[in-house]
Amino acid sequence: MSLYDWLLFLHVLAAFAAVASVVVLSAILAATWRSAGVVDAGPFLRMSRLGSRLWDVGGMGTLIFGIWLAVYVEGYELWHGWILAALVLWAVAAAAGVRVGAGFRRAFGADAGHGELGGSIRSQRALIVHAVMALAVAALLVVMIYKPGA
Q1: Residue 22 class from Cβ within 10 Å (0-12 exposed, 13-18 middle, 19+ buried)?
Q2: I need a surface site. Which of 1, 105, 129, 136 has the fewest CB within 10 A?
Q3: Predicted confidence (pLDDT) per residue in 74-118, tens digit
Q4: Do 120 and 106 form a contact (C-beta atoms < 8 A)?
Q5: Can you tell me the distance from the alpha carbon of 103 to that of 126, in angstroms, rounded to the nearest whole number?
């Protein structure tokens, strides 16, 4: 296999991890939305660690291997419109993902003390930030697949 094949494989693998994290965190959000308290949501909140780690690995992997691919592949430049759009969408998704992960960590911390499942993941603001993350990742996939303007 060539270096290009390895870079593309690792970039796509990282993208799968990022999308898997959105799926895991969305499933946790849906499962805990109507929970009466942290005790009910505890098993789901423990899974949020997996979603957060997938997000960390997937986000950094897509960025590192994506930039490496853009520099390595002849005909691609970092200033091409679709690559700039992907970088902006990545930044939006990463910023939202950090906030979503922090909300789940706060909720998980409440789980340790068996407290109340507060607004960290059930507020309207948390739901909007989660939706921004999911939509940015979906838009990022569209840009990566169709490469508009390339």
Answers
A1: buried
A2: 1
A3: 988 999 999 999 999 999 999 999 888 888 877 766 555 555 555
A4: yes
A5: 7
Residue 25: C-alpha distances to residues 44, 48, 69, 71 (Å): 9, 6, 28, 32
> Terminus-to-terminus CA distance in the chain, angstroms?
25
Six-digit token string for 39: 């005790």
pTM of the full structure: 0.86
| Cα within 13 Å of Cα(12), Cβ side | 7
Query: By the 8 A CB rule, do 22 and 133 touch?
Result: yes
- Sign of the Cα torsion 101, 102, 106, 109 reads positive
Strand, helix or coil for residue 35: coil
Our CA angle for 33, 13, 85, nearest 5°, is 80
Encoding tokens for residue 139? Answer: 């838009």
Residue pointed to by tokens 């390595």: 72
How many other CB atoms are found less than 10 A from the CB of residue 99?
15
Residue 148 has pLDDT above 60, yes or no: yes
Tokens representing residue 143 in the block? 């840009």
Closest to 39 measured CA to CA, from 103, 104, 99, 107: 107
DSSP 34: T
